[in-house]
Amino acid sequence: MPRAKKRSGRGGQPGNVQPFSDEDSSIETLSHCSSLSERTSAAEEAGETEEMAQEDFQYKLKVYIDSTVDKSAKTRQGALDGLKTAMATKILYEFISERRMTITDSIERCLKKGKGVEQCAAASLACLLCIQLGSGIESEEVFKTLKPVFKTILNDGAANIQARQACATSLGLCTLVAEDDIMDVYATMECFESLFTHSYVREDGSRPSVNPQTTQLHTNALLSWALLLTICTGSHIRAIAQKHLAKLPRLLENDDVNMRIAAGETIALLFELIRDVDPEFDYDDWEQLCEQLNALATDCNKHRAKTDKRKQRSVFRDVLKAVEEGDFQSETIRFATERMVIDSWVKKRTYDAFREFVGSGMNYHLQANEFIRDVFELGPPMLIDSAALKAMKSSRLERHLYNAAAFKARTKARNKFRDKRVDVGEF
Questions:
Q1: Are 234 and 277 in contact (CB under 8 A)?
Q2: Contact 150, 170 (CB under 8 A)
Q3: Residue from 395, 245, 268, 381 nearest 325 by CA
Q4: What torsion, rounded to 10 degrees, do the Cα atoms 347, 343, 319, 325 define?
Q5: Compositional bias (Polar residues) spans (predicted)?
Q6: What is the band of 19 on the pLDDT scale with cuts at 50, 70, 90?
Q7: How many whole angstroms separate alpha carbon 84 and alpha carbon 78?
Q8: How far apart are CA 233 and CA 127, in angstroms?
């Protein structure tokens, strides 16, 4: 505010005091209006920028969708990959639901007419499409169109082996998300059984000769079968345990580390499910199975790669605990301000199946995807603005001090149990 000026009148008497002139008032008003208009225009510009970015993003998606029917295989492949990346990292329900049949037709065409890598990309895109649409009529319509194509490729021995592997994985997750009839779920499980049982040891004790690519196909089929096992009824779980629990341990002798791990995790999952159905369940060859699992948990064979042995030992320690004690080594997944505890083999198999397709976008989908939150019983999405999220985070200095204190305490605790290398002399 400008200072008021005093003016002298006649006879030295003080004149009328004016707090500010009309000109000063107009200047200040203009100043306030100018600053307000600047802030408003900045907000409008930010909104316009965001809106333009959204329009550009949707335009790119439309170009990708149109390019899935291009004559060039390379262009189709790039379009499928672009759509996969977008669906894995963003929630696009409204945009996709309006174009779901167009995208479904493109996926079907790429599966039927494409080759190898293109078929794999189309199969993965089908899963992401179902994840985006969630469990409902829309995803059911998509799956009814694609399920026959998946099964045709999966059962075709002359089809590309990589395409068959991808279809084995995608068919399992799409069935979990979009299948509306439990009898159809059982039929799909039988389709998977017809594949991975070819890796079972024969009745005469001989092992089938299977090449690595086919072994990977059988592994994918086994994991998808285990995924659908998580939604089976109690009576069906009893029937499956009676049919497969005696044969699955023979897959632990397989030369492929991925098959051994898949078989071990499936055995742990099956034990968890059957014990929930029948707490008094008793397995005849329990001691022999525990010995076999313990051997894999402490495997020291020199002919196996160090990374394979390390991965195998870590998994089978948990599998052994599951079979012997019914325990599960829980794991906490943190995303934004929330956390989810994976405390069972059922939840682990489900989480791993979704993460295989969503990848690095899994935390974002756990935070914002209503369907995935419903699967893991996380409730409706929590809406937290960026300012509140920033306020909740600890400062860099606080994190550094906490980590330093934790490191010091951990070192002290370990030193108590470490060998001090005391020389005890020779015997």
A1: yes
A2: yes
A3: 268
A4: -130
A5: 27-40
A6: very low
A7: 10
A8: 24
The first and second tokens of residue 231, run together, are 């939604």
Closest by CA position to 210, among listed 221, 196, 220: 196
Tokens of 247: 């044969």
Do residues 367 and 398 touch, judged by C-beta distance below 8 A? no
Per-residue model confidence as pLDDT tens digits over 102-129: 999 999 999 999 999 999 999 999 999 9
Query: Is 146:119 a contact under the CB 8 Å cutoff?
Result: no
Tokens of 366: 């756990």
User: In degrees to the nearest 10, what's the CA dihedral of 91, 127, 214, 264?
Assistant: 70
Q: How many CA atoms lie within 13 A of 158 on its CB side?
A: 0
Its pTM stands at: 0.80
Residue 12's alpha-carbon distances to 4, 6, 7, 16, 19, in angstroms, are 19, 12, 10, 13, 20
CB 267 within 8 Å of CB 248:
yes
Concatenating the DSSP letter of every residue in 187-251 gives HHHHHHHHHHGGGSPPTTSPPP---HHHHHHHHHHHHHHHHHHTT--HHHHHHHHHHHTTTGGGG
Phi, psi of 6, deg, nearest 5: -90, 135
pLDDT for the residue 16 = 43
Neighbour-count burial for 85-103, b at 16+ CB within 10 Å, e otherwise: ebbbebbbbebbeeebeeb
Rg over alpha carbons for the chain, rounded to the nearest Å, is 32
End-to-end CA distance of the chain: 96
